């Protein structure tokens, strides 16, 4: 019986097991070839072939979805799943030489599937001549993790962000002082799928205040054997008002000691100033200084004239002696 549709023909394929398996890795956005090659050198008539590429539908048991196929009598391959339309193709010229490989363009995270290649010959009463299972693993590089923080709470809080990666990552926080891995119980990870089907990750680390903190965030992509560590080193020291808390100066008694120290310094400065002033006065007696005087020659001449006129001999004492004395 000749099947008239891919769906009807697939009913005949239930229970078939793959004879060989391969694994392929591809980056998101790239093109990939899933190999399905007849082991012996041979040439085939396309009118004698039924070729199917299909995947198992997740959560639907044994129900398969056709990616693309070639039926006897067709001059070109067709597509069964719209997700693969214009992306999956078979080469008719290659199939004549026994190469039934699937060419998949613009790989997406949803393409991470197990693909089955099935080849049947019409002339052999639809005998299966080739079956290959190819598992496609999809990967995408995460962005370089960026660490921000810490917050100004009672404990130090750091936040690490990395985006657009695949598959789901492993997240570690490390102590950059000795490169040791911090306890995973100190961190809280949030991993979500974005609109592109890639993963974004946000990890929050909370640790107690210490005088010195130097931490880094590491994003591990297991499929790519890749570890990305935050490029910047976060080092924080100081008082509670800045980043960390000083066990002495940050306490109330420490602040009081700082105030007393400032007052003591001011008192010493005042005492030195007073002592310097006292020594200066004791060694340098005060002098009366009335300032510079302007010479008045007319006054000197007048005084000499009065003295020559009103000498004691020219001013005998009499009833008006007080007035004459005043003139003299």
UniProtKB/TrEMBL annotation:
Ranges of residues in domain Ig-like: 6-127
Keywords from the UniProt entry: Immunoglobulin domain, Membrane, Signal, Transmembrane, Transmembrane helix
Domain of life, source organism: Eukaryota
PROSITE patterns: IG_LIKE
Subcellular location: Membrane
Pfam families: C2-set_3 (PF22705), V-set (PF07686)
Signal peptide limits: 1-20
InterPro entries noted in UniProt: BTN3A2-like_Ig-C, Ig-like_dom, Ig-like_dom_sf, Ig-like_fold, Ig_sub, Ig_V-set, IgSF_BTN/MOG
TM ranges: 259-280
Main location group: membrane
SMART domains associated with the record: IG (SM00409)
Keyword set includes Metal-binding: no
Full protein name: ICOS ligand isoform X3
């Amino acid at each position: 019986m000749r099947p008239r549709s891919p769906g009807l023909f697939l009913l005949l394929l239930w229970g078939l097991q793959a004879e060989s398996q391969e694994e392929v890795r591809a980056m998101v956005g790239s093109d990939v070839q899933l190999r399905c090659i007849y082991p012996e050198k041979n040439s085939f008539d396309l009118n004698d072939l039924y070729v199917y590429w299909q995947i198992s539908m997740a959560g639907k048991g044994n129900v398969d979805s056709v990616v693309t196929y070639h039926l006897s009598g067709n001059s070109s391959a067709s597509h069964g799943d719209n997700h693969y339309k214009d992306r999956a193709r078979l080469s008719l010229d290659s199939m004549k030489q026994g190469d039934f490989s699937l060419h998949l363009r613009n790989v997406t995270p949803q393409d991470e599937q197990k693909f089955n290649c099935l080849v049947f010959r019409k002339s052999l009463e639809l005998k299966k001549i080739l079956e290959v299972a190819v598992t496609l693993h999809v990967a995408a590089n995460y962005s370089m993790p960026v660490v921000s923080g810490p917050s100004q709470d009672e404990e130090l809080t750091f936040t690490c962000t990395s985006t657009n990666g695949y598959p789901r990552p492993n997240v570690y926080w490390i102590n950059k002082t000795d490169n040791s891995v911090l306890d995973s119980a100190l961190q809280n990870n949030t991993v979500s799928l974005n609109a592109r089907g890639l993963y974004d990750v946000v990890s929050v680390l909370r640790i107690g205040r210490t005088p010195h903190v130097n931490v880094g965030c590491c994003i591990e992509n297991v499929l790519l054997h890749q570890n990305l560590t935050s490029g910047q080193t976060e080092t924080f020291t100081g008082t509670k008002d800045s980043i960390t808390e000083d066990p002495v100066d940050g306490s109330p008694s420490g602040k009081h000691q700082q105030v007393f120290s400032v007052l003591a310094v001011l008192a010493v400065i005042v005492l030195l100033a007073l002592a310097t002033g006292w020594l200066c006065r004791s060694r340098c007696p005060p002098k009366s200084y009335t300032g510079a005087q302007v010479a008045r020659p007319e006054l000197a001449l007048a005084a000499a004239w009065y003295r020559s006129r009103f000498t004691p001999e020219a001013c005998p004492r009499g009833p008006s002696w007080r007035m004459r004395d005043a003139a003299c």
